[in-house]
## 1
Amino acid sequence: MDRRSLIGGNWKMHLDAESAAALASDVAAAAAGITGAVDLAVFPPHPYLQCVFKAAGGHLLVGGQDVSDQPEGAFTGQVSAAMLADCGCQLTLVGHSERRHGLGETGPVLAQKSRQALRCGLRVLLCVGETLEDREAGRARDVVLEQLRGGLEGVSTEAISRVDLAYEPVWAIGTGRTAGPQEAQEMHAVLRSDIEARYDARSAARMRILYGGSVKPSNAADLMACEDVDGALVGGASLQADSFVEIARAAARPEQP
Ligand code: 13P
């Protein structure tokens, strides 16, 4: 199956309202000139979602960096899936390593977030990835599969068609150290075959699996050439329109008739 690539810009806790809107409109303008099958998404800080949505003018997908596991209520500081949808979001990250490791979020809460988002019509970009310690101890694959299964607990075969994955090894995030194309391909293939085993071949074939961790214009093409790498989740390099769009160009696939 030919999958349309997806390039996501995770802006993390950077920018202000003015620079966020300017970046979105620059990326949207440049994206119009990309030929090929690639979707571009940006994940601004929550307070800037609406201004970024307006600036994107329908040319970019806009997503939340996180979502509450609860539908509504007395949950100070949390943002619900319905609120994200209301602000123009089509998708949300779930389980980014900065929340798993920095804030201690684990399987059951993440699965609840995934289900909430899917219930409200959002797509989910579920992030998984091992630490350097895990990799050196030879348990990278087990850790990543546990995160995958945990984050999708209770997600139906119907809903899985609205889930994409991002493999982001923690040791590659913001470090300048990237997994080599072969390391990325190996883990992506493991993830896809687990989806096939737990759901079905069709769901596995159409799921997009993004790589994340120090992706830049200089290494994007080699990563994107891997059979099971369907795009990238980009941190630092997404804060400049030029570098983000260059990565998107490297990920664009031939348009299907
Ligand atoms: P960097 O591209 O800055 O390494 O960040 C990756 C990331 O965490 C994207 O979600």
## 2
Amino acid sequence: MVDKTILVTGGAGYVGSHACKALAQAGYVPVTYDNLFRGHRELVKWGPLEVGDICDPARLKDVIARHKPVATMHFAAMALVGESVSQPDVYHRVNVEGTSTLLAIMRGAGVDKIVVSGTCAVYGMPKTTPITEDTPIAPISPYGETKLGMERRVSAADVSSVVLRYFNAAGADPDAETGEWHEPETHLIPNVLNAATKGETLRLFGDDYPTPDGTCIRDYIHVCDIAAAHVAALAYMDKAPGAHVFNLGTGTGNSVREVIETARRVTGKDIRAVVEKRREGDPAVLVANSSRVQSALGWTPRRSLEDQVRDAWRWTQKNG
Ligand code: UDP
């Protein structure tokens, strides 16, 4: 057993809660720090919950002093692109200033390692695919800008860090102990599965993209593969101190129509979709080149799109 405490900010959220389970299975004690604004108390199952805000230095200081974590995993952030356009100041305060607050308190307490939830949104509308870490950075929304700001504060800080820029997180814990629970829900796979359970019609945003079937292509990656990469990143910082940034995807792209077909197969349900106009800011293709993270962390994605849809379906059926 490792028996070391990790502070998990945003541990009551989607990726954060899966990371907590993966940490516990690897012998760590995950202490969730979450303000429960969009996180859920019910998803904190693998360690204590400390309710607190990432922008509250006194509370953070108290929690770190009591639990004495050896490292932090940082998921606490605002993550809705549309909302970031209408509330850019809130996104800056939480995503950028909140990260600075966390780093300052960590340093004051001698915590010198952090794994950070990053995003491919920092690449904006890339001109080439697949996307490597050398693809130009050009976010097109306040969300992408503030996640880039978060990365920069982390890389400039006097700590070791691994930022994982993930592509499309999807799926759920195979035991259905945690899963995707967003309010509002904007993501494709849960919306497809809601269409399957509730008989609603999926709104398909655009079928006139320059792709084989005209719908957008994304690199969907199972949330448990993402969680495993976070755990591997902790050990990596011991042998490779300093600041690291990696893409995290599978390298395989699937179109919106392929996702719908996979969901029809997995659920056995008829899923209706109606084509609407393009959603603003959606690039045609986003697929990761993740060779750097694979060779650095010795991590590899193990679960297919079918696994993602099947596990998300189990979670939806349990909670729908
Ligand atoms: N999408 C869709 N209908 C939905 C939600 C998403 O057609 O209800 C499309 C969206 O336009 C994009 C893809 O599905 O091409 C993935 O979108 P999602 O919001 O899941 O992730 P994003 O790539 O925006 O981070």
## 3
Amino acid sequence: MSRLWDKGAPLDERVLRFTAGEDFSLDERLIAYDIRASIAHAEMLLEQGLLARADLEAIRGGLTALGQAHAQGQWHVELPDEDGHTALERRLTERIGPAGGRVHLGRSRNDQVLAALRLYLRDALEDLSAGAIAVAQALERLGAREQTTALPGYTHMQQAMPSSVPLWAGGFAAEIRDDAEALRHVHRRLGRNPLGSAAGYGTPGLPLDREATREKLGFASVQEPVTAVQLSRGKAEAELLFHVTILLQDVGRLAADVLLFCTEEFGFVRLPEAFTTGSSIMPQKRNPDLFELIRGRSATAQACLLEVLAICAKLPSGYQRDLQLLKFPLFRAIDLALETLGILPAALDALSFRTERIRLDPAIHAAEEANRLVVREGIPFREAYRRVAAKLKGSG
Ligand code: ARG
């Protein structure tokens, strides 16, 4: 099989394998989005008098059918295709004949991949924030279930102030909701239409309507000038992965608390057997591996973020094939985050507090006592603090 850019001399098989790398399989998830963008592009070509109606109908019908067949698993992007964009044009042309060769007028895979990625990331963002909200809701349910369960509040891992399960869970819920909100800010970077920038320098000699594809695909603006488009690749990715990392760090810190609360020494929390795993040697053990792996996941997200930043740093302007490498860490972090957010609500719903094991040091109310003294007697806080400290020392 040859590629659409092949012009005679065959590509060395080893070079194909190296340059396509994992790209052909990574592009699987972009197929539906590439089709949507390709149809918008073809419609715009018709409106500009650059494509005949019959050809547009054939392209639209062919791409739609290819999309449906792909969604049903009837075909996949193959290594010799190099990537998803090429696979689609090849299959389209096989299906509808020479009209398939008209769809690529005024575009390049360089703007095509950005359009497909932005459309995909728009959906991924919504899935991620919905996953985060579901975790926050599970925390709020936990707080409501354990409305009256007191907890010590810790600073320096020492009992500090009285707290409660709703207060503990509510803090995480609020931060995770905030992370979900922050994720949505990435829409700003994703809202720019890259189509029409083609390889990165526009389409001299061709009257394209970038506003028309903008409108059809729901982008907020046309990305201008054309040279900005390739410079922006990797930035929405980095911003998204930053927020994913922050989100997974919050989720990981929640897991760290749960793991502490599950220890024999704390014993605050009980996990049902179905949510713990066993040991191959110690018959008595039930392990909270689920929460440990949740805790560990933020490391991968952070590494993916660093990889994305490092790939783009110091690249000269214009398209560079390095940019293809962004997809692996991007998809990896998104998949891990969705998987983590997906399991967490069920785990939180399964968790209960063992009130009989939760003991608050009586001295935990010391700050409250000092505050009350100030309110009652109008003395400086420092004096009240000393009085309460002296009393505690005397009684201790
Ligand atoms: N797979 C490529 C990427 O993700 C698509 C663009 C390829 N462009 C090229 N000129 N080889 O960057």
## 4
Amino acid sequence: MLKEDLGKLNIAEINQALLAKQFSVKEMTASFLQAIDQSKLNAFISINDQAIAQAEEADKNLAQAKDNVLFGIPLAVKDIILVKDLKATAGSQMLKNYIAPYTATAVKRLQDKGMIVLGKTNCDEFAMGASNEHSYFGPVLNPHNQTRVSGGSSGGSAAAVAASLATVALGSDTGGSIRQPAAFCGISGLKPSYGRVSRYGSIAMASSLDQIGPMAKNIKDLAYLLQAMAGVDKLDATTSHKAVPNYLENLKVKNPRDLVIGVPKEYFSDKIDIEIKQAIEEKIKFLADNGFAIKEVSLPNTEYALAVYYLLMPAEVSSNLARFDGLLYGISAAEDLSLDQWYKTVRSTGFSEESKRRIMLGTYILSAGYYDAYYKQAQKVRTLIKEDFVKVFQEVDVLLTPATPTPAFELGAKVNDPLQMYLADIFTVAANVAGICGLSMPIAKTQNNLPIGLQLLAAPYYEEKLFVLGNFIENNK
Ligand code: GLN
């Protein structure tokens, strides 16, 4: 097999090729590392210098690949997720020299299966952004058009998978940061239900919204990764004790047509790009023509989801980022400064404008006198948004919506206009606010050859429904 084709293989194909000795884990790892080295996309912040040694070790134990499909598979990890002894910068100057002292549970579970971490991917600072332009390490270019953004904040992971620099990747999603860049780069990405995957070892952005999730070129690969990562973790008290279903078995045996699809009318306003709207509507028609039950539904409080998110998220951000004071974590300042000057120096130089904006907003929202008006009120509306979903999921199994209102936009187009940037997440944030699961997958391209993403949403812990329907859509075009 030609080395250049390696990047196009999915997990099962690599597994078969490894077992057939078409190439070794070491050859494969080296070939991916070379591709990363030659890439101009800026998708990676750092490389795992132990990757080749780990691959050599894997080759000695190749027999394990027989009943373990993840064995030896190359993985890229968003730089907000800790991998022991590798840098974890969170895309920030504040942590540019920080070396992770332990490994996140999600990564650990994949490494235990024999996956090889190739390196750490670029992201918006502390996962805050929708274009990857808020990274201290510069923007990630979209592999489909290098004048466009990759999306954010997991833009490095999305671009790495799309450009075949890694077979699969991990991202984190607080308001859309897996699904939106996946849609912009033409790959699939899953935000698991809140509590499905441990957050231990993920640098916190907004703890009640964050989830780690997989990104891949196809639905089945997402299922393989979730299968290995999901489940209770005693190191994260918010992980669910609910049993993890056998996702792969479900993909084989479940009939996708048993799933009732809901189309929420609030997601189809005139503000959506016309080509995206048409592509999604065509897909709905295709599913209806193919025997699926489709119902129009309403989520009346969804229009408040973005506002609620931009109150609760900064409140949590301001408290999570308080630890970056140059003493516990972060860059240092000159030793002869007073405490006050020290704080000012460290926090004004270490954080980008976007982080400062959110810390200030969050501090304001939580301050005495404004807490009731903003934070408490937002929590109440959060409950209403959740209740909308609970109601709708009594009627339908999966909601089908666009993933983003526009395709990947030009670099620089929104970076100086925070409100426009925040609107990029209009279709994705509600899932985080409500704690439900969501998946985005590519379904078409615009006339300019930019990917168009579809979003599927399901009730908490029903990721299997997303996989079953997503797999049908992927395989029936
Ligand atoms: N783009 C959103 C934001 O800027 C979402 C970020 C995320 O999901 N991590 O907050």
